[in-house]
Amino acid sequence: MRWQELKDEACPVARAMSVIGDRWTLLVLRDCFRGVRRFEAFQERLGITRHVLADRLRKLVDAGVLSREPYQDGPVRYEYRLTETGRAFHPVLVTLMAWGEKVVPCDGETPPLRLVSRATGEPVRPVVVDEATGEPITPSNVRAER
Question: Residue ranges of the HTH hxlR-type domain (predicted)?
């Protein structure tokens, strides 16, 4: 299967991967949720080439995940903001963070990045639950079907 063909697949995972399916795109989105909006800031934080960054930002704008808005005239410069579609990616990113912390923990020298509640300051542990029942969703209690 070719990369460009993923968006036409019946599988929602394949279609999602057609939008966010590489490391740079995921890291750009991570930084967006941390408040990064400007091209130079993304480039500095990620160490990514201008060409690759421009490509990933364009794809995210084209997919409706980010919007491109001018913040300066002469020369015109743009910043990138999460759209409603982009903000809907947050639970995926949070779950990926939790998985990464469990499976690929920090080296012990650098403190790990943790999610904490803005209200209490306490650590937050994400759990994927069924909206109707509030029960955790696990491989043993759900299946995919058409």
Answer: 11-108
This prediction has a pTM of 0.86
Q: Within 10 Å of residue 60's Cβ, how many Cβ atoms? A: 24
Alpha carbon distance 88, 29 (integer Å): 11
- Write out pLDDT tens, residues 79-90: 999 999 999 999
The rounded distance, in Å, linking the Cα atoms of 133 and 111 is 36
CATH numbers and ranges of domains, the chain: 3-83 (1.10.10.10)
Query: Which pLDDT value is given to residue 2?
Result: 62
Amino acid sitting at position 59:
K
For residues 83 and 64, give the distance between their C-alpha atoms in angstroms, rounded to a whole number. Answer: 7
